[in-house]
Design goal:
Number of strands: 2
Radius of gyration: 17 Å
Low-confidence stretches: none
Distance between the termini: 10 Å
Number of helices: 5
Number of domains: 1
Shape: globular
């Protein structure tokens, strides 16, 4: 049975981050999976935003092209935090945003039926 604890408050964003990194980080706070983030997940997200900022600023300030390898690395970091639909599907997690009487349960994570059956649930 899952253990539910107190939701971890996201650390503040860095004012120096690139606007895209800030937008991505802010979007995490509104995402359903964020209710399960641990402090280490938020720090991983901060690191991802930092790397994203460095790469985007290098691209803009030095007129360098975005490097495919770095974009792939950033995308992978984002995927590790389950911030993309594809990453959630690979782990068989589904965000359920149906209205509910309990506002704290508005965005819950539901395990898909076939995943439950694998574990005899």
């Amino acid at each position: 049975m899952p253990i539910r604890g107190k939701t971890v408050k996201a650390p503040a964003e860095d004012r120096d981050w690139h606007v895209i990194a800030k937008g991505w980080y802010r979007s995490l706070k509104q995402s359903g999976q964020a209710q399960f983030f641990e402090p280490s997940d938020w720090q991983a997200a901060r690191f991802c935003a930092y790397v994203m900022t460095r790469h985007l600023r290098d691209h803009e300030d030095n007129d360098r092209p975005l490097r495919a390898g770095m974009v792939d690395t950033i995308w992978s970091m984002m995927g590790d935090l389950l911030t993309t639909e594809a990453a959630r599907r690979r782990t068989r997690l589904e965000l359920d945003r149906r209205p509910t009487a309990d506002p704290e349960a508005a965005a819950t994570v539901a395990i898909m039926n076939e995943y439950r059956s694998e574990f005899g649930g």
